[in-house]
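pinned: reference chain
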Amino acid sequence: MSRLPLTLVLLCALAGTLSGNRAAAQATATALPAAPPAPIHFMAHGGYFGSDGRQIVATPDWVRATLDDTAQSLLRRASASQRVTFEERRAHIAQVLGGDGVARLYATSLLLDWLIDETAGDEAATLKARNGALRRTLENDSPPAGAAGDADRRDGFVSPYQRALLAQWSLPQLVVPSFAQLQVREAYLKTCTSLRVPLPRTWGEAGAWTSNGKLAAPFIITGAAAELFVGNPRATDPPGVCLALPRYNGALPRSDQKASLLGVICMAKDKKTDRDGKTGSHACFWDWQGFGTTTIPVVGTEVPITEFKSAPEFRIADGGECSDCHAGANAYVRHPDDPAFQGIANLRPDAWPVLRVPAGWKENLLPTKLEAALAAVTGATDGDCSDCHRLGEVPSGLAGYCEDVLLPSVLGKTVRGPVPAGSPPGTLGPVIAIIKKTMPRPSSTEDFSKQIAALKVECKKIGVEIEPPPPP
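pinned: its structure tokens
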């Protein structure tokens, strides 16, 4: 078995010897809860979605069940030694954190990161991304744990004592950035400057950011308002654009609004070649991931960009690869007909964007074969999906991409349950969900019909056809 990471070594050291737990761990290693009722099919912008395309409400009970289900699945693959080690550590977490459900769930998620590394193989990156997202949900959505006005509790995720304990476990979410992290962030700022990317100004600084309005409809995830802010350039900034998208409780007064998610993307207009020979209009990424607190005021509090994580620090476990979605003719995911996305300068850079994301993440390659196939049927006056969306390769066996993303987006989808036993041939199962089309947006004035027809053809080539919803 490989060595445990420092997080778990320190966890064990805090309680001394665990030998007394071994017999109990061996007895309970297979006594695991049942699977959750709504497994995650995919994630986007902090939201979880089931196989029917509907967003899952991430309650604490659902998070607990999802963590237990992940543990159950992994422990089936684990060796006897790995199973016992996992149960020892889980018993120790219960001993140290007692009955605090949120803190115990958080620590259990950290323990699962170790088990994923030990047993998951090729699925490790996906499972760790989901596991990390569950931790973010616990941080952002947990109700206050202490008395009202207890300033030391910040957002109420853990008590001051527990925060100190978790900090000893080297959890980056709860400690001030180290000197090494600050050096990484400064180096990233210098790289972006050298590539003529405008730099984001201090969040909350007077005159630094202007709201372009709330998005008119739920944007990717429900349950949180999304508001688009445009960075106001300094006199010395090169041409380009900075956009930020905080998500927060829109029912609260402005002074009380705190964002649980806040990403910043700045994109150059100018074309530039970097040291590796990549030429394009470069785009740089930052993300608020907190220290000591997990939210950031939407207005009224100044937070320098050096307190945001920069792209070199991003991990898939923090929420997936940014370049999965932020790609195409510009670095943003936008709905052009939504008023919040209108009137923004420099959204058409001089060259195809180069995304400054961690090494090994997807690059924003020039248009794919699918995009070329769509362009071949599109005239000068027709709408082009790839203006706003990067399109993956359909003929490479990605049937799920056709069935769950492409076709439901442009056609909608009828989801049916199992065919009742004893039904005659040709009987369809009962309708259990209707997924409505989302693209193009209803107010779009462009005609995308030729590209939609071409998408149906490309997906049919790999055997994917769906049942659109009936007309309204």
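why pinned: The first strand starts at residue 42 and ends at 44. The CA atoms of residues 44 and 218 lie 13 Å apart.
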